[in-house]
Design brief:
The protein is 31% helix and 4% strand. It is mostly helical and 398 residues long. The strands form three sheets. Strands 1-2 form a two-stranded antiparallel ribbon. Strands 3-4 form a two-stranded antiparallel ribbon.
Amino acid sequence: MKLSKILQLCAIVLLFSSCNDTEEDAYTPLPSTASYPAVEAEFGNSVDLNNLANYANQTIPSYITKDNSALNLISNKIATLGRVLFYDKKLSANNTVSCSTCHKQEVAFGDNTVASSGVNGTTGRHSMRLINTRFASESKFFWDERAANLEIQTTMPIKDHGEMGFSGLNGDLSFNDLIVKLSAVDYYKELFQFAFDSEEITETKIQIALAQFIRSIQSFDSKYDVGRASAPNDGAPFSNFTAQENQGKNLFLTPPQFNATGSRTAGGLGCAGCHRAPEFDIDPNSRNNGIIGTISGNGIDITNTRAPSLRDLVRVDGTTNGQMMHTGVITTLQAAIGHYGTINIAPGNTNLDPRLRPGGNGQQLNLTAAEVNAVIAFLRTLSGTDVYTNAKWSNPFN
């Protein structure tokens, strides 16, 4: 990790430890007599600082054990500020783009266009869904893991010339100009005082707040969660699943067996080798999945080794939450499974995950139609409903 990123992470930890609420304080609303005229004027009832939404103490199933929030524990105050920052177009140079432009609540905080629109063009990769980012072992961010953690990631799009335009390069304003801009906004004076006991705005405070809000976005109300809650482990049959859904779960969890040429002879699909139940987060040791194209169509990109959780990959009814993969080249679950069914090792791909090239050959899963349909049925059980409509994750400017 570069020294600058290490120092930035240290600053986040020190500021959080000195400014953040205690766990008890995080759940205690302020007295109803507190007044925040600028916040009330801008947001009305959608942001009520005297009656905070619950970000800090949400129910987490007992079988969920991964949690990467230890250095930045969620508080209701700071996550509330993070929500406003996430949706505020003032964070872009021309006031037209916010974080939510590329990460839309209605599509599981992803995007339903291949390349998301920025202030000076479009993104180089498809925008990743932001579901259950807290519940993952992988702490690095972006498809190519270029951000050491979520905190650092949150301001990188703001400082990108194409995305939000405060790069300080190519004639852009600098991030310091953004801080000056936000410091003049009355509702931010109240919100930063409320969250950090100081009106002063810094990049580290913005990172802490945005990361807390993003980590608060969780989805555990799926059919899978109902079944897992009463099952002794992931491999046991779920009583609320159909036979097809249980078959798909077994295929997802069970590793395949291959012959010398990389052709499956027995076992399942082994999806869980990289997408690990019950969080369905990506294994941090994963390499790329064989899709090495670019949105622009120029050259190859073998550095994409991260992926979002498979939760809410689609909606309960099977409707997709936008395109899949860093290029957006996959648009259906059938196509996604089909990709892994036949892995072709493209020239120049020196970073293909070894689990996809048994014996040095691209895997051939020899999938049947029944197996494909079963895995699709199972993947649909990973989708909930609350995350799409819950007001605490919605746009407060509406």
